[in-house]
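User: quick one, sequence for these C-alpha cells?
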C-alpha cells in the first residue's frame, strides 16, 4: 500500500470512483475499490489482444472489488472468462488479493516477481513466525511493552482480503510479458516490496508504475522482517532505474495518470532527503531509539493520535531511513534492547 504518511492530504469528502477509461487503443484503466482506505481504489489495467485480455494487478479480494472488476472488464468488451493472464506488480493485498479469484474464474496465469513469490507462504498462509519476528523488531525499536501485541497483530485483518495463491509464472527483471501485440518489459524496482515490478510498454512509451512512482503521494518504504536489508536504498536505486526510460505518460496504480516521470522521481528524492534531515534533527535533540525518533517526525496528525497499523507503519518508515543513513556512514546503531542511534564520529568530522 502507498504511504500512510503521504495520506495526509486525503479528503474526507471522497468523490465517487473515477470512470473506466480507454487510455490508448486497446488499453483500459479500471478503478477497483479498496475497503476502508483513503486511497479509495487501485487502478487495474486491461490490455486487449487477439488471444483475449490481460490484466496488470487485480484488487482486494472482496465481493465489491470483484464485481467492480468484472464490470470494468465488461466495459472493455470482455467477460471475466476472457482473461488470459494477470501480471501482479507486487504482493500487497490491493494488487495481489484478487488474482487467485480471477484465475479460478478464467484459468488465467498469474505472474509475479520471485522475490515477492517467496514471501507468500509466510505472509499469508503461516504468519505466526512472521508475527514473532515483527514483535522482536518492535522491541528493538523501543516500542512500549504494552503496545507491542497490538502493533504486532495490526495487519492480521488484511489476510482476509487476500486469495493466497502461488504464481504460475515468475517475472524477472527484463522479462518480456507474454501479451500478444504489446511490447511490455518488466523492470524490477524493489523498495515498496522486495519484488515490486514496473512495466514499460515501448510501443506507446508508457510506464505502468504500480506503487513505485505515484503522482502525488509517496509509497510506503518500511523496514520489516520481509523488507530486505535496506528497502529505502533499494527504492532510491530503483527510482534511478525507471528514470532512464523515455515515458510519455506514467500509469500508476493509484490516483491518476501523469507525465514527466523524471521530474516526479526528483520530487520523491527530495522528499526522502527532507525525511533524512528530520531523523537527524530528532537524534540531535536527544531522541535515540527508532520509536522516539518516529515520535518526533512529521506525520498526518500528532503522534499521540496515531494507533495500530498506522503507528507501526510510521515506525517502520522511520527505521528504513535510519538504516539507509547507517549504510551511508551518517549514523551508527548501538546494540541493545532497544538499540540506540547516534550520529557517527566520521560524519561529525566531515
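Assistant:
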Amino acid at each position: 500500500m502507498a504511504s500512510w504518511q503521504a495520506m495526509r492530504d486525503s479528503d474526507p469528502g471522497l468523490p465517487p470512483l473515477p470512470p473506466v477509461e480507454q487510455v490508448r487503443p486497446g488499453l483500459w484503466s479500471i478503478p477497483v475499490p479498496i475497503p476502508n482506505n483513503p486511497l479509495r481504489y487501485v487502478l487495474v489495467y486491461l490490455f486487449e489482444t487477439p488471444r483475449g485480455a490481460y490484466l496488470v494487478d487485480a484488487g482486494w479480494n472482496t465481493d465489491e472489488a470483484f464485481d467492480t472488476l468484472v464490470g470494468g472488464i465488461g466495459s472493455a468488451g470482455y467477460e471475466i472468462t476472457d482473461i488470459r493472464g494477470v501480471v501482479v506488480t507486487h504482493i500487497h493485498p490491493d494488487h495481489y488479493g484478487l488474482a487467485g479469484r480471477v484465475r479460478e474464474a478464467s484459468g488465467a496465469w498469474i505472474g509475479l516477481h520471485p522475490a515477492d513469490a517467496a514471501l507468500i507462504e509466510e505472509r499469508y498462509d503461516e504468519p505466526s513466525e512472521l508475527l514473532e519476528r515483527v514483535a522482536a523488531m518492535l522491541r528493538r525499536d523501543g516500542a512500549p511493552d504494552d503496545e507491542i501485541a497490538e502493533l504486532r497483530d495490526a495487519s492480521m485483518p488484511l489476510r482476509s482480503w487476500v486469495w493466497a495463491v502461488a504464481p504460475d509464472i515468475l517475472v524477472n527483471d527484463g522479462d518480456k510479458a507474454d501479451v500478444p501485440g504489446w511490447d511490455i518489459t518488466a523492470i524490477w524496482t524493489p523498495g515498496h516490496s522486495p519484488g515490486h515490478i514496473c512495466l514499460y510498454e515501448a510501443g506507446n512509451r508508457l510506464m505502468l508504475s504500480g506503487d513505485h512512482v505515484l503522482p502525488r503521494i509517496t509509497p510506503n518504504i518500511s523496514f520489516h522482517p520481509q523488507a530486505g536489508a535496506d528497502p529505502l536504498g533499494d527504492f532510491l536505486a530503483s527510482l534511478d532505474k525507471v528514470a532512464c526510460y523515455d515515458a510519455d505518460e506514467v500509469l500508476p496504480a493509484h490516483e491518476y495518470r501523469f507525465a514527466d516521470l523524471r521530474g516526479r522521481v526528483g520530487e520523491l528524492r527530495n522528499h526522502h532527503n527532507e525525511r533524512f534531515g528530520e531523523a537527524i534533527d530528532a537524534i540531535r535533540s536527544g531522541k535515540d531509539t527508532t520509536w522516539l525518533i518516529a515520535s518526533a517526525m512529521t506525520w498526518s496528525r500528532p503522534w499521540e493520535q496515531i494507533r495500530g497499523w498506522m503507528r507501526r507503519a510510521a515506525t517502520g518508515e522511520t527505521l528504513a531511513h535510519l538504516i539507509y543513513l547507517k549504510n551511508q556512514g551518517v549514523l551508527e546503531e548501538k546494540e541493545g534492547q532497544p538499540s540506540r542511534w547516534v550520529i557517527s564520529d566520521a560524519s561529525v568530522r566531515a
